Amino acid sequence: MLIQIMPLLLTKDQFPKILTAIEKNREILRKELQYEDDELAKLEPLLDDAMKGAYEKGAYPPRKMSDTVADKTAKLSLQRRIIVAMMIHNMSDVLDTTLNVGQKKAIIGSFDPKFIDPSAKPDSMSDDRKTSFFIERVFLDPITYEILKKLDK
After folding, report:
1. Who contacts 59 (Cβ-Cβ below 8 Å, separation ≥6)?
2. What is the spatial distance between Cα 131 and Cα 1, in angstroms, rounded to a whole number?
3. Global pTM?
4. Which residues contact 94 (CB under 8 A, 6 or more apart)?
5. What would the pLDDT profile of 59-113 be if each residue is shown by its tens digit?
6. Domain boundaries, the chain
């Protein structure tokens, strides 16, 4: 992450704004993960019964159970994607008002489309998409928060 962050040449007055935005996003994610844990815990008795039946009676897990699990995990996955998109948007707003033109160009210039698609061409992706990818992979990574706190000292 240092390799991604250092070229931005962040200034002392930028760190608090960025760290605050990351903290807010971390809280959003923490709440989402707690919600997901709670929802998955509700499935546990159903799964325990199915596993017990399989081990003790050789019973194949009921189709309804696998459909319920698949439906719940699909919904949670979609919700997580929405939450991450919201976090990227929140972070983008902060960076847009905090970073200077050179720092924004450094973010866009650091993008390697092969991270998403090995056959992708850099020219085929918008600067907004490149920035969003950087935000998701760098600024929203838990390690980045710790690095920025150390760099701020």
Report:
1. 53
2. 15
3. 0.83
4. 17, 18, 20, 21
5. 888 888 889 999 999 999 999 999 999 999 999 999 999 999 999 999 998 877 6
6. 2-152
